[in-house]
């Protein structure tokens, strides 16, 4: 993973962008200092006119270099330099697709001039014939007036692209959205919202005291200090919904989003929530620290702060309807609003899952080192890398969730495009000595009701640790991964072994039954064999098959292992049998014997018995 991705780097953006490969960024959003004397902690926002323009050309050129040929660049800038930076960007090679005005309430009071209440948003592209614009994304569409106001059944069910006039309520704002004509706005001066779910006014007449001309403007109330959405450490924070519409429209999940002036990290936070990779640069150590804390507090798929999705309302907000016909229309609008809200909730949940699964796939791609998903979950080292990647990518969940989702993706074929070129070279002969321990530990956890499957054990770090400790007591001296892989091999071959076992006749000429403490493994042949374990000469507790009878029983019952075995059975009797050359395949004879008994020997894996 590129170390510059998914974090904020401290330093000058021009130098830092020089570290990015050319053509590596899909979308850049820049909200640079406006050069109006704002009091930043480490930056002088009062450069000489030509010096500011020259500096702007330099960083915009750096943005152009790192953008892909089909990349997009959005620039937020104030009145003072809007025209100059638009021309500079075009001289560098950008094409201006849209010139949007972001109009906000609570404008900045200015001496002897009109209150500052807007900023310019330039939508630039590198190639007019090839750029990303996802106008079919449902979250980028709004209901038409035909649907929202008039409840007309002829309205397009998926809505339409919004006009350039947006009025979006920030998260947890108090009171109605109104203009701030005298600069004395206070939540205490405003009544509670007449419709707490109203998110923006579709028509100018719904904003008697606010912005009315239907021009090329976007209306988002500025994030003021009284809003909970404000990060609390940066005076010029933009609303998440504004960045959300830009990022959703001009990039795809998994794309790289760049913010050269990270500031409050809103761009990066929105990019992360929407499942994009991100990279940010910032001069201030404090802003970097606060920004990283903000990013650590959110997960991929989290909802954006504020609400951008409109609900149906009366033709005018707060207006009382009169007459039976109007009441029926209002009821129909409210029912449709409930349906729309429910559909939106379902879509949010689906998007959360989709982005989480995309993140799991990306984490696997970054960490699998050419191995399969089974190996990544079972191998402690690879799994640590995978879980670290999930954590760095900000995926919702915990290690058990991430491992479980990885297995789900593998089973549904969603990892097929990621090439796995490395094979796990552990053959039957390699795991034969300790296979019994993996089998017994696995089935014991299943019988105790701690898990319902091997997948569940391997995915849960708590259960995996218990499995590891159990199997290590029974057969010490091997690597953790070897024990887990043996259990996977056992599960994989069990059904085939069971099928083959149906054609075999169970052998009966075992050596006489003897207590395991009297067993002399050194007298046994180093050949394939079977053995039966009973706890009272009648009740079978385990049937074992091995490629080397002497080695297996020396490990299972030699010396100190008898003490460990006594924890499982206080008295154990054993019968052994050497096997001739066989073409039955591994575990077929073991399954044959397991199937012979009406009651499965309690320590044998249940898949070896009848289905």
What is the helix tally?
19
Shape: elongated
Average pLDDT score:
81
Oligomer: single chain
Name of the CATH class of the largest domain: Alpha Beta
The major β-sheet equals: 8 strands, mixed
Taken together, the total number of domains comes to 2
Low-pLDDT sequence parts: 165-216, 309-321
Q: Structural class, from secondary structure content? A: alpha/beta
CATH superfamily of the largest domain: Vaccinia Virus protein VP39
Q: What share of residues is helical?
A: 25-40%
Can you describe this structure in just a few lines?
38% of the residues lie in helices and 13% in strands. With 611 residues, the chain is of the alpha/beta class.
Explain what this protein looks like in three dimensions.
The structure is a single chain. By secondary structure, the chain is α/β, with parallel strands linked by helices. The chain folds into two domains: 7-296, 3-Layer(aba) Sandwich (Rossmann fold), CATH 3.40.50.150; 428-608, no CATH class. The protein is 38% helix and 13% strand. The chain has helices at residues 13-17, 49-66, 79-92, 145-148, 240-250, 266-273, 285-296, 323-367, 373-378, 380-392, 399-411, 428-431, 435-447, 454-459, 461-474, 480-501, 549-557, 561-566, 588-596, and strands at residues 7-10, 25-30, 67-77, 95-108, 116-125, 217-219, 256-259, 277-282, 514-515, 529-534, 540-546, 573-578. The strands form two sheets. An eight-stranded mixed sheet has the order 1-8-7-2-3-5-4-6. Strands 9-12-10-11 form a four-stranded antiparallel sheet, covered by helices on one side. Mean pLDDT is 81; it is low at 165-216 and 309-321.
């Amino acid at each position: 993973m590129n170390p510059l991705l998914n974090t904020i780097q401290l330093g000058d953006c021009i130098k830092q962008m020089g570290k990015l490969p050319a053509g590596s960024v899909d979308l850049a959003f820049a909200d640079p200092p406006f050069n109006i004397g704002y009091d930043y902690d480490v930056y002088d926002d009062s450069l000489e006119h030509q010096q500011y323009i020259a500096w702007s050309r330099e960083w915009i050129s750096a943005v152009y270099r790192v953008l892909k040929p089909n990349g997009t660049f959005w620039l937020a800038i104030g009145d003072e330099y809007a025209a100059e930076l638009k021309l500079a960007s075009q001289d560098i090679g950008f094409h201006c697709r849209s010139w949007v005005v972001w109009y906000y309430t609570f404008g900045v009071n200015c001496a002897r001039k009109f209150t500052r209440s807007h900023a310019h948003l330039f939508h630039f592209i590198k190639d007019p014939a090839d750029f990303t614009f996802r106008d079919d994304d449902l979250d980028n569409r709004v209901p038409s007036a035909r649907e929202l106001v008039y409840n007309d059944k002829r309205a397009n069910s998926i809505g339409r692209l919004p006009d350039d006039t947006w009025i979006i309520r920030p998260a947890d704002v108090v009171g109605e959205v109104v203009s701030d004509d005298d600069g004395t706005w206070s939540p205490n001066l405003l009544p509670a919202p007449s419709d707490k779910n109203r998110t923006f006014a579709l028509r100018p007449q719904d904003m008697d005291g606010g912005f009315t001309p239907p021009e090329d403007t976007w209306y988002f109330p500025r994030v003021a200090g009284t809003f909970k959405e404000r990060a609390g450490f940066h005076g010029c924070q933009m609303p998440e919904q504004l960045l959300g519409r830009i990022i959703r429209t001009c990039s795809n999940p998994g794309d790289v989003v760049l913010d050269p002036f990270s500031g409050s990290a809103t761009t990066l936070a929105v990019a992360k929530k929407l499942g994009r990779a991100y990279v940010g640069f910032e001069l201030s150590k404090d802003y970097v620290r606060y920004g990283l804390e903000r990013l650590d507090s959110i997960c991929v798929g989290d909802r954006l702060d504020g609400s951008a999705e409109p609900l149906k309302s009366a033709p005018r907000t707060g207006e009382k309807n009169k007459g039976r016909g109007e009441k029926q229309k209002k009821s129909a609008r409210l029912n449709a609003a409930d349906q729309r809200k429910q559909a939106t909730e379902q879509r949010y949940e689906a998007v959360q899952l989709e982005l989480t699964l995309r993140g799991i796939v990306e984490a696997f791609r970054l960490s699998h080192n050419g191995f399969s998903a089974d190996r990544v979950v079972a191998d402690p080292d690879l799994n640590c890398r995978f879980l670290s990647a999930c954590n760095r990518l900000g995926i919702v969940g915990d290690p058990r969730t991430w491992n479980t989702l990885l297995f789900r993706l593998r089973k549904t074929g969603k990892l097929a495009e990621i090439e796995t070129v490395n094979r796990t070279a552990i053959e039957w002969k390699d795991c034969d000595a300790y296979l019994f321990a993996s089998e017994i530990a696995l089935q014991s956890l299943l019988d105790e009701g701690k898990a319902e499957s091997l997948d569940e054990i391997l995915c849960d770090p708590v259960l995996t640790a218990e499995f590891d400790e159990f199997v290590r007591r029974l057969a010490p001296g091997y690597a953790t991964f070897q024990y887990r892989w043996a259990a996977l091999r056992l599960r994989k071959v069990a059904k085939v072994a069971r099928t083959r076992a149906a054609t075999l006749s169970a052998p009966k000429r075992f050596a006489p039954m003897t207590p395991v403490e009297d067993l002399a493994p050194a007298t046994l042949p180093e050949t394939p064999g079977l053995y039966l374990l009973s706890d009272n000469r009648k009740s079978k507790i385990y049937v074992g098959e091995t490629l080397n009878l002497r080695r297996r029983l020396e490990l299972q019952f030699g010396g100190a292992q008898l003490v460990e075995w006594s924890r499982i059975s206080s008295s154990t009797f054993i019968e052994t049998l050497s096997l001739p050359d066989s073409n039955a395949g591994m575990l077929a004879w073991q399954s044959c014997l397991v199937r012979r008994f009406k009651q499965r020997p309690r320590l044998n894996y249940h898949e070896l018995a009848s289905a």
